Amino acid sequence: RIIGSSAEAIDIAEDRHRFEDFLNHLGIPQPPGGAVTTLAEALRVAELIGYPVLVRPSYVLGGRAMEIVEDASELAQYVHNAVAVASKRPILVDKYLEGKEIEVDAICDGDQVLIPGVMEHIERAGVHSGDSMAIYPGINLDPAHVETIVDYTVRIGLALQVRGLMNVQYVLYDGRVYVLEVNPRASRTVPFLSKVTGVPIVRLATLIALGVSLREEGYAGGLWKRQKLVAIKAPVFSGAKLVGVDTYLGPEMKSTGEVMGIDFGYEPALAKALSAAGLMLPREGGVLFSIADRDKPAALAVAQQVSAAGYTLYATEGTASALASVGLPVRVITKRIGQGSPDVLDILRSGEARAVVNTMTGDRDPLRDGFYIRRTAVECGAPCYTSLDTARVIADLVANGAPAYEVLPLAEYLARGRARASVEAPRER
Hints:
By secondary structure, the protein is α/β, with parallel strands linked by helices. The chain has helices spanning 7-14, 16-26, 39-49, 72-86, 143-160, 190-197, 201-209, 266-277, 296-308, 317-324, 344-349, 369-379, 388-399, 410-428, and strands at residues 33-36, 53-57, 67-69, 91-95, 100-108, 113-121, 134-136, 164-173, 176-183, 222-223, 230-236, 257-263, 286-290, 312-315, 331-332, 353-358, 384-385. The chain is built from 14 helices and 17 strands. It starts with 6 loop residues before the first helix and ends with a helix. The relative contact order is 0.11.
């Protein structure tokens, strides 16, 4: 006998056909897709739902062997390489919805579902949740979408008859909430959410697994009262210690830890999280931009803010042309390693460029020059942003100047947050 959630609940959440039937029965939307066992089936599903698609094996943790593929040739390569990882289980092919990702940790006793908080990710769906920056509470979420997420989470937890912890990941795309995945187990955000809300999530879940109800512990179901503070979870990477590992952010998890920045406002909390994670831009120096063609228009705003904040812009040939076309002062650096001086590795090793913004095409070949840019940045201790969403919030922060903040014990933040909530409660009603 398994203590807590049953093997049946786990299998429903992991088996694609069962999970699809489960959500359809509840009337809860999910991205279109299917489970396949052959290349022909994979190509047929992808053609039906349209590229890009998210592909992954069943029954894996940490986004292992999960990728976003842009066309049939990439899909064929993935299916060929995924056979060993999939261990004869089906490969899942889902429509990739590039929207805002939202995450929930919940506690269910079979009769009630308590949701300590709803977190929104800074990076859009497609970056593994463990590598994303998460904001509590979801300060940019429409209350109607939060209500939908709470409703879906409660219905899923009760229908699965979860006993203990459950993690649900959603994507908000084109104004509609979709379920990405359900995990009837603990997740890495539990300590973060427990600290910032004051809900003893692990203790409650453990007691429930042993047969105690939420009501017996003095808790009711539904969404826990929103705290009057902001906390941001930022990932920590060990790239410098893992020789030869690429550091781009994607569906497969790369981070080895996380930190929390907490304050009464968004910008101070963000500054603390970035500083603690080693992701903050240095106070001065140069920033190297090497951007995939499809991302160049979106990267211009980031480069403009960074330049306005006093940083020197360096860029590889194509990116430099795009930056210069809008009047930004930029120094062209050759991307072709060893075919010019200085090349991209030279300016990183010399310290002229102290941070990198680098996005990728769908080609994951580690022999490409982009791999060496990212690896050299890590080895030189330069922050390397491979998601424009990450780069954008950092650019916003430096453009507005370093926010002032104080450092207090966690208990004091929680106490002040509760006091603020009590004062503001009558106005909210």
